[in-house]
Design a protein that fits this description.
The chain is an all-alpha fold and about 220 residues long. It has a two-stranded antiparallel sheet. It has a domain of about 110 residues. The chain contains 6 helices and 2 strands. The protein is globular and about 55 Å long. About 70% of the residues lie in helices and about 0% in strands. About 10% of the residues are buried. Strand 1 and strand 2 form a beta hairpin. This is BHLH domain-containing protein.
């Protein structure tokens, strides 16, 4: 009789152990399915918030006013430092470089494209200093012939992504989601730059300037 009771207790313990293990499997399986979806939604929310903040930053009136003021100061400084004998294409290039540099400074180094513009400016100034030493005659090194490599054809969508990565400074090797974030911020910054340059050009030519509220401002007033 005692052995019968002991066997019943052991069978009950085994049954309860099996049921608890099944419950743990169900709980673990359910939790594993929900984690990727929550992380994916969190990533999408973060990307959306970044795009929204970049659009607000470059479209605010205060940001526009600060950039326009810094741009005028930088252009005046560039005009004083440049010689009067400079060619017209050279002057246009300096104006474009100055506008891009002020735009990169306004981004405060928070984006790859702004850091790339500032880094290229620093490299350009460094190369100009070293270019003063002229290389002539036998000391001039000959460039090796280019090595031809076989090019593989990319799908149309990858070609478009590759072209886009070349248009945005410093974004050639970025993953596609990060490239979209940089492109969104860069386009919004360029739109602000165009508004400032258009207003400056209209002021210099004496034509009325359209402000953000839609009214016109006469340059002579």
């Amino acid at each position: 009789m005692a052995s019968y009771n002991i066997s019943n207790v052991e069978s009950n313990i085994d049954a309860s152990g099996d049921s608890s293990r099944k419950k743990r499997r169900k709980i673990g399986g359910g939790g594993g399915d929900e984690i990727p979806s929550s992380s994916s939604s969190l990533t999408q929310t973060t990307t959306h918030d970044r795009e929204k903040s970049s659009m607000i930053r470059w479209k605010s009136d205060s940001e526009q006013q600060i950039y326009s003021t810094k741009l005028v100061e930088a252009l005046c400084k560039t005009k004083r430092s440049s010689s009067s004998s400079s060619s017209s294409p050279g002057k246009v290039r300096k104006v474009r470089e100055t506008a891009d540099r002020v735009l990169a400074v306004a981004a405060k180094g928070t984006t790859r494209w702004s850091r790339a513009i500032l880094a290229s400016r620093h490299m350009l100034m460094t190369n100009r200093k070293h270019r003063k030493v002229k290389v002539t005659g036998k000391s001039r090194l000959q460039k090796p012939p280019p090595i031809r490599t076989k090019t593989t054809r990319l799908p149309p969508i990858q070609k478009k992504v590759q072209t886009l990565s070349r248009l945005v400074p410093g974004c050639r090797k970025l993953p596609f989601p990060n490239l979209l974030e940089e492109t969104t911020d860069y386009i919004a910054a360029l739109e602000m730059q165009v508004r400032a340059m258009t207003a400056l050009a209209e002021l210099l030519t004496g034509s009325p300037v359209n402000n953000r509220s839609g009214s016109t401002i006469n340059a002579s007033s």
